[in-house]
Task: inverse folding
């Protein structure tokens, strides 16, 4: 198999079954997580009795499926047969051997199932929730559903999120979040604009960002358990939707945040070319850091996330795991494949010292 992989294009998977049933956006998302792989003539793709969680599709070349003497079946790339997964049974009923040099894609069944479930339920969910809607409720729901977070949670959670959110009318100048307060809600701007500011130790107010309609905020404190680190003030009259901390943790945080221990993280760097991402401050990173890690402080991550490679997996770390959990959620929300180093550097030091 070729060591170098390239992403498959939407055009190359558009005809595959059931990939063809996905929306354009979700097909693009799937293509971004799927690679073209090569296998030389005579090599084994999978064997009879194998348990795995992938669907294999032949792109080019000829492949033999055999379950015993006299049962050989040849499948050729570019034919109607190759639109369907090769031996879609678990355990595998056949052994697959390359008759010629071939190219193929393997699609993660869990990811495909989530995307299909999302596509088949999302429209229904919005319809159900907007039956009594007279103010264009469906528009903000549809916009919110475009977030990559909703690709990572069970479909039942999606409807529950909307059912548990409550409307909150706001006025220009109203302070929605105050720096230093405990986190209590996650907010989504249904209409209006808001400013994010931070009060420095000197007392100077620093403007960090401006939030527009269709933007969520307030998740950092809910994920990390820390105090609010900024103020959010409305720049115009508008309307927010908010989700209570308990509901946020149950429906969004728990299904999305994944942690790995250091040995597993090391394997990811070797086997999947994963990248270490340090979200502590620059001075912390310079003092001590995991070799080869990239440093983007948490407070800059919203701005600099676009500089990261969406095709790479990121192992996010800080000292304790608090800041890295917030960063992992933020990256996942933007479509990145990210996990948190369990316990952070403090835990790592304990492991290394044997304590």
Result:
């Amino acid at each position: 198999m070729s060591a170098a992989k390239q992403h498959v294009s939407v055009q190359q998977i558009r005809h595959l079954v059931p990939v063809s049933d996905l929306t354009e956006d979700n097909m693009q998302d799937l293509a971004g997580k799927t690679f073209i792989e090569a296998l030389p003539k005579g090599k084994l793709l999978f064997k009879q009795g194998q348990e795995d969680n992938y669907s294999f599709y032949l792109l080019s070349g000829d492949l033999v499926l055999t379950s015993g003497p006299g049962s050989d079946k040849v499948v050729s790339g570019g034919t109607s047969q190759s639109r369907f997964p090769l031996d879609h049974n678990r355990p595998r009923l056949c052994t697959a051997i390359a008759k010629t040099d071939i190219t193929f894609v393997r699609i993660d069944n869990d990811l495909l199932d989530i995307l299909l479930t999302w596509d088949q339920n999302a429209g229904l969910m919005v319809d159900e929730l907007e039956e009594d809607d007279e103010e264009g409720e469906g528009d903000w729901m549809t916009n919110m559903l475009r977030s990559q977070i909703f690709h990572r949670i069970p479909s039942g959670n999606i409807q529950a999120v909307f059912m548990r959110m409550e409307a909150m009318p706001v006025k220009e100048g109203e302070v929605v979040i105050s720096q230093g307060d405990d986190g209590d809600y996650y907010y989504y701007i249904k209409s209006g604009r808001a400013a994010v500011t931070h009060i420095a130790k000197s007392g100077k107010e620093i403007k960090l960002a401006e939030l527009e309609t269709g933007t969520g905020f307030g998740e950092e404190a809910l994920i990390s358990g820390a105090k609010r680190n900024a103020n959010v003030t409305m720049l115009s009259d508008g309307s927010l939707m908010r989700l209570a901390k308990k509901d946020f943790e149950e429906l969004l945080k728990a299904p999305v945040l994944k942690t790995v221990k250091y040995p597993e993280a090391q394997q990811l760097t070797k086997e999947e070319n994963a990248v270490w991402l340090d979200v502590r401050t620059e001075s912390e990173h310079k003092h001590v850091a995991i070799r080869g890690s990239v440093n983007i402080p948490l407070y800059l991550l919203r701005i600099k996330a676009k500089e990261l490679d969406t095709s790479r997996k990121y192992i996010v770390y800080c000292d304790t795991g608090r800041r890295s959990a917030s960063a992992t959620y933020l990256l996942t929300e933007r479509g990145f494949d990210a996990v948190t180093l369990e316990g952070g550097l403090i835990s790592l030091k304990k492991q290394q010292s044997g304590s």
